[in-house]
Amino acid sequence: MTEKAERKLNVPHSSKQVRLNEIQDVLADEGYSADDRKSWLKAVLTELSSAQAESPSEDREQLIKEVRKIIDSNQSGKPLADDVL
């Protein structure tokens, strides 16, 4: 297996705020499967929602909306990008 194929996506914990550019980097990286990306996004959403419940933040709320939008758009059967060459 290649090094990229062996990598695992780490879910950021609420003590470290994930940023939109980090999410975009994961979505753009070809080393992760669609299932890995989807699972990671859902885990990020869970962490963000938990942190938002404990300490509301307008920036975090915007990020939560963006993550939900990405997840919803990928579940509709219309991927944001093709996985074919």
UniProtKB/TrEMBL annotation:
Designated name of the protein: Uncharacterized protein
Superkingdom per UniProt: Bacteria
